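Field reference: sequence -> structure
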Amino acid sequence: MPCSGIKPALLASPLAAAAPMDILKQTGACKVLGPAFYQQRIKVITFEFPPSIIYQRDAKGQLRYRYGWEVTLVEELAAIFNFTVAYIEPAPGEMWGVVLPNGSWDGIVGLLGTGEGDLSIANIFISSISGRRAYQEFTTQFALESRK
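Structure field:
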């Protein structure tokens, strides 16, 4: 079973309620599923958005590494399902994306829609207000934010 390598800390997390394999099947990502991903490169679209995604840079401003809870999630899934991660970013200022006058999208939503990325992490909220819900698929929610 591919999930046998899940670390105990991950089993105690909210993700335990929705196994990654089930999430991928529900979202239509089955085109790349097998017993494992066989080191297939998965293009993950993201940008710096603390505390979900944090960038560590060197003295020259060059990106050394990414970290944060969403990065940890992707890295754990990569270890469990045997895939490699290639991070890509939307154009500066585009972030999550907005619908353009011609009906296409920019940002993360646009990159997913054109197939330039396979999945995204960037504190993305499921929202029908922005129209993203009609354009992209979401996993089962794994984090909640309350209004107080």
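Note: The first strand starts at residue 41 and ends at 45.
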